[in-house]
Amino acid sequence: MIESGRIDALLQVALPSAAQPAVITVGLAYFAVVVAISIWAARRTRTASDFFVAGKGIGLIALTVASVSVSVSGFAFIGGPGFIYAVGLGAMWIVLPAAVTNVMGAWVLAKRMRLLGEARSLITVPDAIGARYRSPAAQGLSAVAILVGIVGYMATNALAMGVVINAIFGVGLGWGIWIGMGVTLAYSASGGILAGIYNDVFQGTLMAIASVLVFLFVLGFGGGLGDISRVILSHDPAFLGPWGKLTPLAALSFFFVFSMGSLGQPQAVHKYYMLRDPLQLKWYPLLKTLGLVLVLLLYFSVGVGVKAFVLNGRLAPLTSPDQATPALLLSVTPIILAALVFSGIAAATMSAANSFINIGAAIVTHDLPVAFGKRVSNELRWGRAMTILIAVAAAITAQQSGAMVAFLGIFGWGLFASTLVPALAVGLNWQGATRAGAIASIATGLIVTLALETTAYRKVFTFPAGVTASAVAMVSSFLVFFVVSWLTRRSAAAELDPDVRLVMEL
Amino acid sequence: MTDPARSQGGVTVDLTRRASLVALFAGIAAIAVGYAAAFKSAGTPGWAPWLLALGIPVALGAIMVLGAARGRRGIGQLKLPLAFVVVVLVIGFGAALALPATEGPLSQLWLGMPARAAIVIYGIGLLPIIVLPVAYALTFETQTLSAEDVEQVRALGRRYQSRNEGTEGTSRNDVTHD
Fold first, then answer.
1. How many other C-beta atoms can be found within 10 angstroms of the C-beta atom of residue A260?
2. Are residues A115 and A44 in contact, defined by beta-carbon separation less than 8 angstroms?
3. Which of A70, A259, A455, B2 is the most exposed place for a label (fewest CB within 10 A)?
4. What does the CA dihedral A154, A159, A164, A170 come to, rounded to 10 degrees?
5. Hey, are the CB atoms on A381 and B177 less than 8 Å from each other?
6. B126 interfaces chain A, CB cutoff of 8 Å
């Protein structure tokens, strides 16, 4: 739901140093807990299934908190409030879809993916596409698309980690990247997704606590939401208009891309395989939505609150919008709250990185070989090796030019959405969808996203206000999926195995 | 409520899913036209955002119906909550587009926000949270998944696995390695 890649790019601005004893102490305590959880998880990871889908043995609460944690990323703490500060309530259209995305995901994907996992012992998102269309080609192509997206996500997450760790410990950006990736790699390689899930539980809890405390602090400091609004309305009423300073088309585009696109985010969708008992899905959307609301309280309150505090002179004007959260934390809030939030930001970036590392390793060791009719003899060992390779590659890429990393981070969410939503979300619910439709749709999403993002990045052309490459690619992919499936509809029935058909009919 | 279903070319087709697919296609097409209009040299026409304001709720509602539809029973009791959410989104988007910008120091506040912002934050952002997850949980056993469903899938999966083991010698992913 929240665009980790694009927005972690916003963390490339240097955060002010928060290296004070309290912040460092809380930061060290945070890392100590992460290490302890990782050691515990490593001892329980014995099979490829443990490594990639936690042995399908995660309970409801743990899965919910982990899912919230991996959905949010550092954007909710730094980039998001900064975006609100810059464009007003228009930035809320990125997070408003959270009201519907979790239930939508549950209805459209959770049940069918979890049951497919039950029937076929699936462990990856491309596995589901391969099983649905009985097509190694569709599985391989979707794996390639996810891998391309992960390259961008990982580079931006690695850089974001470096920025945050540098702010906490003052070790320099380069060392920050290596320390952050080193810790993430340690628990990703040793404990796989099991370590990731339980670290996510810890990290998600930390993020929720930090978010609620900051929300309450901002309301108290500003005299309540009404007083905060009055200050803003006196100076800049457009800020509190429904679109803020965006155009209606831009704001609605955010809502479309972040709602429909949520059905194609592998880091969230992949979690459906992990629930111990499929019947526990009953409370998953409610709990996850409530968790997201708690974590997003900071996003809203800091963005709006800091705007009011700057307007009435209680905070100095910001040097850039992304300084909204650090400025509030380091100038106004108790230092212990700042320490919690900085650790929460580190937690958010590490949580997202771990999830992407694990998914990337599964693609290389599982999906791509399957697409070529091969099997890796020891998926666990190769999974660990690929985890190390991906993490090191991400850390090296993150050391490159900021513009390059920003570009890589831009297309992650949109690429996942345009390549996976029609083939996966619609395909698992429509027996008339065909293999040709799925392959054409995935290819369209991949090509259109890369072509448009590259040409826009190189300023070959400029999109009209409110139109994004992600949105155009997703719409194109949908239309191609429908048209090609309709043209090849005679083959639809032959592409369905009986167990897949049953899962789709339930 | 039972929807008549029939097999068409070997795939199950029912009215609920058919209608939701048509609505999904229509919603996406409306969004596509809205975006295409933004490329006009004269600038984005005023009606383009309205296409998104209608197309997005229709597409989201349609894909939720498509996912929630169960066999030939359609969406049963979920009609009301799903319709409610689509209507809330349409009204919320429409109000944000149609109401005049009157925000100012003397604006009346609703739960701390001026009217149009309150519609967006509380209407679009919070109302569906109160309705959808609760409707999902309350209808879970009848509409989404029961213990019998799970057992049925497991049994069919076991047959699939044993058939594959017979031909390939091993199942796909359940191999213990260490």
1. 28
2. no
3. B2
4. 140
5. yes
6. yes
Neighbours of A498 (CB within 10 A): 11
Query: pLDDT tens for residues A104-141?
Result: 999 999 999 989 988 888 889 999 999 999 999 999 99
**A267 or A73, higher pLDDT:** A267
Please give the Cα distance from A10 to A433 (Å, whole number): 39
Give the ipTM of the model, two decimals please.
0.90
What does the pLDDT look like over B62-90, one tens digit per residue? 999 999 998 778 898 999 999 999 999 99
Per-residue tokens: A196: 């990731």
Mean pLDDT of chain A: 87
Choose the weakest-confidence range: A169-178, A184-193, B11-20, B137-146: A184-193
The verdict on B41 touching A (C-beta cutoff 8 Å) is no
Q: Of the candidates A48, A225, A252, which has its C-beta nearest B56's C-beta?
A: A252
Q: Rounded to 5 degrees, what are φ and ψ at A266? A: -60, -30
Q: Which 3-state string (H, E, C) describes chain B?
A: CCCCEEEECCEEEEHHHHHHHHHHHHHHHHHHHHHHHHCCCCCCCCCHHHHHHHHHHHHHHHHHHHHHCCCCCCCHHHHHHHHHHHHHHHHHHHHHHHCCCCCCCCCCEECCEEHHHHHHHHHHHHHHHHHHHHHHHHCHHHHHCCHHHHHHHHHHHHHHHHHHHHHHCCCCCCCCCC
Amino acid present at A230? R
Q: Which A positions 99-158 lie with beta carbon below 8 A of chain B?
A: 99-100, 102-104, 106-109, 111-112, 115, 118-123, 127
Q: List all residues of chain B from 129 to 168 with a beta carbon under 8 Å from chain A.
A: 129, 132-137, 140-141, 144-147, 149-150, 152-154, 156-157, 159-161
Report chain A residues whose CB lies below 8 A from the CB of B147.
279
- As a whole number of angstroms, the distance between CA A20 and CA A169 comes to 8
- Nearest Cα residue to A363 out of A137, A142, A143: A143
Closest approach of B142 to chain A, Cα-based (Å): 11
Q: Using N-to-C axis directions, what is the helix angle for A324-331 and A284-311, rounded to 10°? A: 70
Above 50 in pLDDT, residue A9?
Answer: no
Residue A55 is which amino acid? G
How far is it, in rounded angstroms, from Cα A342 to Cα A26?
A: 9
Residue A301 pLDDT level (bands cut at 50, 70, 90):
very high
B117 to chain A, closest Cα gap in Å: 5
Name the residue with higher pLDDT: A453 or B99: B99
Q: Which of residues 78-117 of B touch A (CB under 8 A)?
A: 85, 89, 93, 96-97, 101, 103-105, 107, 109, 111-114, 116-117
Question: Hey, what are A174's tokens?
Answer: 């380069």
Q: What angle do CA A163, A169, A174 make, to 5 degrees?
A: 45
Q: Tell whether B52 lies on the interface with A, counting CB pairs under 8 A.
A: yes
Look-up of token digits 């694009």: A6
